[in-house]
Amino acid sequence: MVDQQAALLEVRRKLKEDFPYYARNALKIRTKDAKIVPFELNAAQRILQKAIDDSMAETGRVRIIILKGRQQGLSTYVGGYLYSRVSQSTAKKAIVVTHKSDSTTALFNMTKRYHENVPEILKPSTSYSSRKELVFDLLDSSYIVATAGGEAIARGETITHAHLSELAFWKEGFARENLNGLLQSIPDADDTAVFIESTANGVTGPFYEMWQGAVAGENGYKAVFIPWFLQTEYRTPVPEGFEKTPQEQEIALKYGLDDEQVYWRRLKVNQNGLDMFKQEYPCEPEEAFLTTGRPVFDPEQLTKRAAELKGPISRLALELTSWNEHPLGELLLYRQIDPGETYFIGADVAMGVRGGDYSVAQVLDSEKRQVAVWRGHVHPDYYAEVLFRLGTLFNNAKIAVEANNHGLLTVNLLFKTWHYPNVYMNVVEDKITDVDTPNLGFITNAKTKPLIIDDLRAALRLGELELNDKTTISELLTFVVKESGKLEAEGDCHDDCVMSLAICNHIHDGVWKPIPVTASHYVHAI
After folding, report:
1. For the whole model, what pTM was predicted?
2. Which domain of life is it from (predicted)?
């Protein structure tokens, strides 16, 4: 009898703590071929489950943002996860918010299907059920749905579990306010969960910002991306005589696609175009975010490089007068500092207000390899000291500061107060007097900006410059030519990394590699 009770308690514990086990034994889903079957996690859902397990082990709570393709079953998973938590625990409140009313209805109907088909022994007492709410009276828990719009959502409520669906498509005028209000209603407590999921919709708005923040490790959310080719149903039998194009061969080799997957992809691309396919069925996160302007830099080349990156070897913070390892340090180091190397630094200067533009310093070595990036919010006067310490760290590197606006203060302090020995000076020639006038720093204007951007584009296209920083690549991907002809960041995106890199590339002396001396050289010399 004791053994039987212990076994029952173990099963009950597993049902509460092991969601795949609970889903398989308690939940029913409707398949794409209209069958009602037990909920077995697919490959995409197992990736999300792994992210949840990791988050719970690390923090005791779940904060996840999901960039997904179409119809991968992630809304189904999150709906089941939320139902499992509020239907087996006391004092829990879950909310699901979608971008339009028919999606809200569809997700709530899915949850009601879970509730109606759950085994009676696991079904909680329900005192109220409407088109928008399930209330479990004895548990004092509930599950509600809402549509993002003009009115505040969950104001005054305490939410423990939230599913914010298709955030990229929430109404533009209210998306940010609705999101902020919802996130404020969720305490930073154990056994709480926030899932933000969406397909991509451009490079502006709160979803893109939240995704970028998660990737950079800046907002406490874990970024989860799931490529389209994990879905077993995304394949089509190939016709007789099928042959892959050279591009398809490259993609198949890179991602391990078989012919049926490649042919399915070809049909989708032919139906909707390559750009829309990448947005709705991305292979990598960077593919999904399309710009409305014309990209200045080659997206395919940048996306390929981003997939190869492994992250910084060290992260440093300036503490008093020295650089020390720090998990929140602004300086990301990608290569070891060589005492015999020559370095160049390009610096972009911002006001230093949090939430605004960043001050950024890019460091290139003599072979134009991106060695380090400093990126942070500091006032222009203190930024002069940061650059002094940074230049000193990199063997008195040549530093070019963008001397527009706030940068004029930074470059003057760097030269006149800190007496930095290697500040870039732009020599202006007076054609009338034939007198050269040296000006501190680099001035960006209507003439020089296209020049340095074109130089940077050429350096990247020709493979002269090695990129190692993901944030820089992200900004390069969203740097566009607008209809007006202006070169600038798309929407609310930043271009501080782009401009500092362009300045650094511009002042670089050029890649120089010694010619290896062979025996034949000595023969000719003799």
Report:
1. 0.72
2. Bacteria
